[in-house]
Amino acid sequence: MSTRSENEGITALLLAGGLGSRMGGVDKGWLELDGVALAERVAARLRPQADALLISANRNLERYAALGRVVTDTAEFANCGPLAGLEAGLAACETTWLIAAPCDLPLLPENLAARLLAPLCDGRSQLAVARSGGQAHPVCMALSITLLPSLRDYLRGGGRRVREWQAQAGALAVDFDDAPQAFRNLNTPEDLAALQQR
Which of this chain's residues are annotated to bind GTP (predicted)? Predict the structure, then answer.
């Protein structure tokens, strides 16, 4: 089995470009958990796992720039959801591999990149998605930058569903059953309050 060579490199993409509609329209990345912003928490988990960090954001750009290089959705793919952020990240990526995670998963595994990249580096696929308890977490993924044309074609054809595009790209699921809390989404104020009280 081959392993990742040092010159291939990994870029991490923090997806923070959503509308936060279930949070009342606030920028979820700057909501705080135990006094630390969610974006800062996730960036701190991703940074040691990658050679570079990109932030997909569409507001509060200067604030996000303190965490990493900011990329914004292009005009062509505006309002296309998380795939627009992924497209911007892939377009800006200067390494062979990209790992992506949303800003509302502050308990992400510290070995997310290594585990997601394992089946990619031995050639089984170009895309891997995290799964725990039988449930896929499609926005937590690792992929080859060679998938950028495929993603653009999908978006230009009107596609918007992350899982649908991943299925077309031959995604593999990587189980994280040993870390069920790691993918606990914070979609609502109640979710954040519950985790705060953990």
Answer: 15-17, 28, 73, 104
The tens place of each residue's pLDDT in the chain, 198 residues long, gives 334 444 479 999 999 976 544 545 678 899 888 889 999 999 999 999 999 999 999 999 999 999 999 999 999 999 899 999 999 999 999 999 999 999 989 999 999 999 999 999 989 999 999 999 999 999 999 999 999 999 999 999 999 999 999 999 999 999 999 988 888 776 555 555 555 555
Residue 65 assigned ligand-binding role: no
In the Cβ-directed half-sphere of 188, how many Cα atoms lie within 13 Å?
3
The full length of the chain comes to 198
Which residues sit opposite 10 in a β-bridge?
97
Predicted TM-score of the model (pTM): 0.89
Q: Is 173 annotated as a binding residue?
A: no
28 is in an annotated binding site: yes
98 known ligand binder = no
**Is 44 annotated as contributing to ligand binding?**
no
Task: Tell me if 127 is assigned to a ligand binding site.
Answer: no
